[in-house]
From TrEMBL:
<dbReference type="GO" id="GO:0008270">
    <property type="term" value="F:zinc ion binding"/>
</dbReference>
<dbReference type="InterPro" id="IPR038508">
    <property type="entry name" value="ArfGAP_dom_sf"/>
</dbReference>
<keyword id="KW-0479">Metal-binding</keyword>
<dbReference type="GO" id="GO:0005096">
    <property type="term" value="F:GTPase activator activity"/>
</dbReference>
<keyword id="KW-0862">Zinc</keyword>
<protein>
    <recommendedName>
        <fullName>Arf-GAP domain-containing protein</fullName>
    </recommendedName>
</protein>
<keyword id="KW-0863">Zinc-finger</keyword>
<dbReference type="GO" id="GO:0003924">
    <property type="term" value="F:GTPase activity"/>
</dbReference>
<dbReference type="InterPro" id="IPR051282">
    <property type="entry name" value="Arf-GAP_GTPase_ANK_PH"/>
</dbReference>
<dbReference type="Pfam" id="PF01412">
    <property type="entry name" value="ArfGap"/>
</dbReference>
<dbReference type="InterPro" id="IPR001164">
    <property type="entry name" value="ArfGAP_dom"/>
</dbReference>
<dbReference type="InterPro" id="IPR037278">
    <property type="entry name" value="ARFGAP/RecO"/>
</dbReference>
<feature type="domain" description="Arf-GAP">
    <location>
        <begin position="1"/>
        <end position="67"/>
    </location>
</feature>
Amino acid sequence: MASMLVDPDWASLNLGAMVCISCSGVHRQLGTHISRIRSLHLDDWPPEPVSVMRAIGNTLANSVWEAAVPVNAGNRRWVCCLPHSI
C-alpha cells in the first residue's frame, strides 16, 4: 500500500502514508473517498494533516490497510513503482 521509499514526493492525507509518484496516480484513480493525495512539495500543508502524517506513518498505515490482505495472496508488501504490481 504505502511506499517504502527513502524520499517519497506524495502522501495520502486520510490514509496517513507517503507514496511515490506512480502509486500516487493509482491512489488518485481510487477516488478522493478512498485516498486524498497531496504533493509534499507543491501543495499547502496545514497543521492538521501534518499531525495525521506524523501520528500514522507508513509502518502503521501498512499494518492497518494490509491486514485484510489474505495470507495466501503472496507478497503482502506492495512492490512500488512496478506496473505489474498494481
